[in-house]
Design goal:
heterodimer; A: seven-stranded mixed beta sheet; 10 helices; B: alpha+beta; Nonspecific Lipid-transfer Protein, Chain A; 3 domains; five-stranded mixed beta sheet; 8 helices; elongated
């Protein structure tokens, strides 16, 4: 559906806790990531106390990527997953680092070049809802902390399923719903009080980090996302809760 | 797949252990060289209680990669309880421990013994990876605690082994001392030789008597 028809039909979606027109969300999300791109990694370390590295490492383990394979890292941001995949696929494989946001992609490209991860890495600026790759061309797709920012998640999941090779796997690493009510209370206090304050102090941008906290709450919980992946045509779908369900990694296989 | 534990916790422990081992390898060229010879080895460790499965993969560059999930074919898989694994990890002679323990081994045990020997020889630096993850203050405190526990474990294990040995030999008289046993075996060997000689002599005499009768 085009922006024009969205605007005309008045279809809405959420941007954090706000309800906005569907065609507005993309530019609003872009604004958030343009604002945080330069300090994204520092903030990730601060916000998660470094635990995001453990979540990403387990996601890479679940991908079981082998040398020679083609991996697409959607919303790859500053390229930390792509750097690891580049090592795993070797010279005969390739890694496609995709992000809709130009600022994040530039930070990622510079960081990967500086770390020496070159040769089998390619940057693609594209929309997860309309992935510009041939059918059945990718062995593994990962999207880490990116799906909740996508306007139409079902459309994005269908697009991912389309380009996966049969037997290929999709891994979605995303914030989710804590399984323990006490942990949920602590997590809520942290997200809505401490996180924006940290955003203000470190990145001088409390609003963007408030959006991050709100977007996490609007994101589908573990079981809902599992159902969405099955609806998109993926099979053998499963998920693993991490850090008490604050984060979950979902895995689905292309039939 | 480890379904009973939080993957983030297991990953943290494995990352710290992997970092410590690989750092020790960097400072121990001989062990690093030995490990390179095992390149491509995938060791699966399956513990029943607590239920846990981990994989040790020797990379082509001689680094050890520890992971809680792997789809690579295993060179060797070891199953057992935590106490069996701890005994193996601290064993002076891993081959003997493997044979005598309740561990179940599927596959070739040679890379397992080689890997255990290399890792047992190393003196890992626990502090560097912990400081990297947790910062100077918390990392140093935790490393100190781990060092103390490790030292206490080693001392206690040595002390327990010595005291048990003394009790069995001296107090309980449940088993004879090694020297006494050795002397007993020598006596048996001498007796066996004497019996053999006597048997030969009797045969020779019997043969002579047979010849005289004919």
């Amino acid at each position: 559906m085009t922006d024009k028809t969205n605007a005309e039909s008045g279809e809405t979606t959420h941007f954090g806790f706000e309800t906005v027109n569907k065609n507005q969300k993309e530019s609003l999300v872009r604004g958030v990531f343009d604002s945080v791109a330069s300090r994204y990694d520092v903030m990730n370390d601060l916000m998660s106390a470094g635990i995001h590295r453990l979540w990403k490492r387990f996601t890479i383990e679940l991908s079981a990527v082998r040398p020679g394979q083609t991996v697409l890292d959607i919303a790859g941001g500053t390229g930390d997953l792509a750097a690891k995949f580049s090592h795993l696929v070797g010279d005969d494989g390739q890694v496609l680092l995709a992000d809709i946001n130009d600022s994040m992609l530039k930070v990622g490209r510079d960081r990967l070049l500086d770390s020496g991860a070159v040769g089998n890495l390619h940057m693609v600026q594209c929309d997860a809802q309309m992935l510009p790759f041939p059918d059945a061309s990718i062995d593994c797709i990962t999207i880490a902390f990116g799906l909740r920012n996508v306007t139409d998640k079902d459309m994005a999941l269908r697009s991912m399923e389309r380009i996966l090779k049969p037997g290929g796997r999709l891994l979605v690493l995303e914030f989710s719903k804590p399984v323990n009510p006490v942990l949920e209370k602590i997590y809520d206090t942290y997200s809505f009080r401490i996180l924006p304050m940290m955003g203000q102090l470190i990145a001088n941008d409390a609003d963007s980090y408030r959006y991050l906290a709100e977007s996490i709450r609007k994101h589908p919980d573990q079981e809902t996302l599992l159902g969405m992946m099955e609806d998109a045509g993926l099979v053998n779908c499963e998920y693993h809760n991490m850090t008490g369900g604050i984060v979950a990694v979902h895995r689905g296989i292309k039939a | 797949m480890n379904t009973d534990h939080d993957p983030a916790v297991i990953t943290a422990v494995l990352m710290a252990a992997e970092g410590a081992i690989n750092r020790s390898l960097e400072l121990d060229p001989a062990s690093a060289r030995d490990l390179t010879d095992l390149s491509g080895t995938v060791l699966a460790v399956e513990c029943w209680a607590p239920a846990l499965e981990i994989f040790a993969i020797v990379e082509a560059d001689g680094q050890l990669h520890l992971t809680s999930y792997s789809e690579q074919p295993c060179s060797v898989r070891v199953r057992g309880g935590l106490s069996d694994f701890l005994t193996l990890a601290t064993a002076e002679d891993p081959a003997v421990t493997l044979i005598n323990s309740d561990l179940e081994i599927i596959g070739n045990s040679a890379p397992l013994i080689a890997l255990q020997t290399i890792v047992a020889k190393m003196q890992p630096d626990w502090e560097a990876p912990l400081v990297e993850v947790l910062g100077d203050v918390a990392g140093h405190q935790l490393a100190n605690l781990l060092r103390q526990i490790f030292r206490w474990g080693q001392t206690s294990s040595q002390s327990l082994r010595r005291q048990l040995s003394e009790f069995i030999l001296e107090e309980g008289r449940l088993s004879p001392p090694a020297a006494e046993l050795e002397y007993f075996y020598q006596e048996i060997d001498t007796l066996v030789l004497k019996v053999d000689r006597l048997e030969s002599r009797l045969k020779r005499l019997a043969h002579r008597v047979d010849n005289q009768i004919q």
